[in-house]
Amino acid sequence: MFDEYGIPDDADLEFAALTLETFVYCSRATDGVDDAEVNRIIEFSQRRNVARGITGVLVFGSGVFFQWIEGPPAEVQTLIASLHDDSRHYDIVPLDRSIEKRERLYLGWEMERVEADDIRSVLHEALDSAEDEHNAAALKRILAHLDSEPLAALGRG
Ligand SMILES: Cc1cc2nc3c(=O)[nH]c(=O)nc-3n(C[C@H](O)[C@H](O)[C@H](O)COP(=O)(O)O)c2cc1C
Fold it and tell me: DSSP class of residue 58?
């Protein structure tokens, strides 16, 4: 009923519960990471995530990434390690991480480009509930970066 990556073979079974690890984080794009580089990340991730049974969403706007990843725990853990080694972003702030038996929230892999205001409200919520002082400090740095963006640059990705 599932293939080796935990993706249901049959579309009717797409809401079946399975053991999924979820990782949600935000980070800042390193200087020099331009649209072409973001497109390379998206193209690579698209192929790699399908092969690993990972689904989720990557949001990018005003130099800030926000990503939701869900999939088989071993695959998600491998990806988390790669993300931490990737010099194209920094100030990685884990916002949520869990392993539970549940339905997938995302059936495929999506990419969204958003405006700074959308990211700002998500980060403010995260800051309100941040318990770890390093995470709170990184969130404040990201928010300060968003606040310092010239208006003309907002939403340009
Ligand atoms: C913001 C961001 C999001 C990324 N998302 C993914 C992803 O969803 N899937 C993926 O395979 N790689 C993603 N990557 C690329 C990984 O960090 C890494 O380069 C890639 O998985 C290759 O890792 P490896 O050389 O350890 O195999 C992302 C990179 C960045 C900077």
Answer: E
Q: Find residue 101's DSSP bridge partners.
A: 19
Which atom belonging to ligand 1 lies closest to the Cα atom of 65?
Answer: 1
Q: Which residues neighbour 136 within 8 Å (Cβ) at sequence distance 6 or greater?
A: 127, 130
Ligand 1 within 6 A of CB of 79: yes
Q: Nearest 5°: phi and psi at 86?
A: -90, 115
Which atom of ligand 1 is nearest the CA belonging to 78? 26
pTM given for the model: 0.81
DSSP code per residue over 89-152: EEEEEEEEEEEEEE--S-SSEEEEE--HHHHHHHHHHHHHH--SHHHHHHHHHHHHHHHHS-GG
Protein residue whose Cα sits closest to atom 20 of ligand 1 = 82
10-residue stretch averages of pLDDT, the chain, 157 residues long: 57 66 95 93 92 91 91 97 98 92 85 78 86 90 83 44
Contact 135, 42 (CB under 8 A): no
Selecting from 3.90.550.10, 3.30.390.80, 3.30.70.100, 1.10.510.10, what CATH number does the domain 11-146 have? 3.30.70.100
